């Protein structure tokens, strides 16, 4: 969330960011509400001062045995006026809250300007595109032949878009999660968390999912809870309302969770198999960092996520997102896309973002400066480290053999207790 003061002091810059992010929020109307709020607060302050003055006068008149009825009536009128203004102030503040939570984060000056994903900038490729001496199968065919998952039976349970892993498919999914968690904890010094998979409205609002993306999430209205779309939500809220000592920064967390997304309007878009599903598993990386070091920490976060794909020997590329493709809450973002041999294209498996103080302002997450003892908003970052469905797509397709088996990369051998997945 942006502060009203920041919006007022940087109106042109904020408006330019909104234009780049294709937001139609009326900032002038928002600042008009703020002017009304300021005027109300000023009038209430003046009336309270007047009421206090009259109260003293009443006490003096009564002490002197004089009639204070006129002053008492005047004080009642002042009190009634204060109540009326406070009612109006509540309406104004509700209007501000309703609008300001729809204002997206500003775009960092280093972000390339563009309207949509066609303007994203490829900044890196790693590894080689797999070369086969045979016609490779897609992950869906491989998975069904090897009895790794069963989408037809999953439909009986929850409808389309929900995977059912079976046997070695379940084991491989679990192996990927454990491998990634162990990797980030042991090699990158993250603290492992296992958070709730449900979150309440405030938590969703703090990370920017609400109110804008309410229709994209699964809801449990009777309990005012949502199924989390990412572990970013509960993990970012771990320090909601807290002040962290500067010496404790950065704080780094790695969390596995199931993720739930309605993906409204996505029908027909890569819906076969694991490429686009409503429920999936992901290891999320979240950082709480000093504002002066957040972009340095973003580069480190990107490297941490990349390291997973490198350890698995999977070809991928990194994109720097343009302004028009940035998420609502991000000031800057990199996407990591892994290569799918059957699709002959890259599939996103991670987004690494710097939110600056956008989320920390919503969640009131601060750090205390060693030098002054004062508290300031810190910066939050997160990135997928990584999501499993498309990772499994790339893994199965990249390491398939001509006989239909999967030759697993060495990094997974300790977690699978095997090096080849064979046809049962």
Q: Can you walk me through this structure?
A:
- The structure is a single chain.
- The chain is of the alpha+beta class.
- It folds into 2 domains: 4-100, Serine-tRNA synthetase, tRNA binding domain (Helix Hairpins); 117-421, 2-Layer Sandwich (BirA Bifunctional Protein, domain 2).
- It is 41% helix and 20% strand.
- The chain contains 13 helices and 16 strands.
- It has helices at residues 4-9, 11-20, 27-63, 69-100, 139-145, 151-158, 168-188, 201-207, 232-236, 294-311, 358-363, 388-398, 413-416; strands at residues 121-126, 191-193, 198-200, 219-220, 225-227, 243-245, 251-260, 279-289, 316-320, 332-340, 345-354, 366-368, 375-377, 379-387, 406-407, 420-421.
- The strands form 4 sheets. An 8-stranded mixed beta sheet has the order 1-9-10-11-14-8-7-2.
- Helix 3 (27-63) packs antiparallel against helix 4 and helix 5 crosses helix 12.
- The longest helix is centred in the N-terminal third of the chain and has 37 residues, at 27-63.
- The two termini are 53 Å apart.
- The mean pLDDT is 94.
């Amino acid at each position: 969330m942006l502060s009203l003061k920041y919006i007022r002091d940087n109106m042109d810059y904020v408006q330019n960011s909104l234009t780049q992010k294709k937001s139609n929020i009326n900032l002038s109307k928002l600042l008009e509400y703020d002017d009304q709020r300021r005027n109300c607060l000023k009038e209430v302050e003046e009336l309270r001062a007047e009421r206090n003055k009259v109260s003293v006068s009443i006490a003096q008149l009564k002490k002197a045995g004089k009639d204070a009825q006129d002053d008492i009536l005047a004080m009642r009128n002042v009190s009634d006026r204060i109540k009326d203004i406070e009612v109006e102030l509540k309406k104004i503040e509700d209007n501000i809250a309703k609008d300001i939570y729809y204002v997206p984060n500003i775009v960092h000056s280093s972000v390339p300007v563009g309207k949509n994903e066609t303007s994203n900038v490829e900044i890196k490729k790693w590894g080689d595109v797999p070369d086969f001496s045979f016609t490779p199968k897609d992950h869906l065919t491989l998975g069904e032949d090897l009895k790794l998952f069963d989408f037809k039976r999953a439909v009986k349970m929850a409808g389309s878009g929900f995977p059912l892993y079976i046997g070695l498919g379940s084991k491989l999914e679990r192996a990927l999660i454990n491998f990634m968690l162990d990797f980030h904890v042991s090699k990158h010094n993250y603290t492992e968390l296992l958070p709730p998979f449900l979150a309440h409205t405030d938590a969703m609002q703090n990370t920017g999912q609400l109110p804008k993306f309410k229709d994209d999430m699964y809801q449990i209205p009777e309990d005012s809870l949502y199924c989390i779309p990412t572990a970013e939500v509960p993990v970012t809220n771990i320090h909601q309302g807290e002040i962290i000592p500067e010496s404790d920064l950065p704080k780094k967390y790695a969390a596995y969770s199931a993720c739930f997304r309605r993906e409204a309007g996505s029908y027909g878009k890569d819906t076969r198999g694991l490429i686009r599903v409503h429920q999936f598993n992901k290891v999320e990386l979240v950082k709480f960092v000093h504002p002066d070091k957040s972009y340095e920490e973003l580069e480190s976060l990107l490297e941490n996520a990349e390291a997973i794909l490198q350890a698995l020997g999977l070809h991928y590329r990194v994109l720097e997102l343009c302004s028009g493709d940035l998420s609502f809450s991000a000031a800057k973002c990199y996407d990591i896309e892994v290569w799918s041999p059957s699709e002959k294209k890259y599939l996103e498996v991670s987004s690494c973002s710097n939110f600056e103080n956008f989320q920390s302002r919503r969640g009131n997450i601060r750090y205390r400066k060693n030098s002054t003892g004062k508290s300031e908003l810190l910066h939050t970052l997160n990135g997928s480290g990584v999501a499993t469905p498309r990772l499994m797509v790339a893994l199965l397709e990249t390491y398939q053999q001509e006989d239909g088996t999967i030759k697993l990369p060495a990094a997974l051998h300790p977690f699978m207790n095997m090096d080849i997945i064979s046809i049962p």
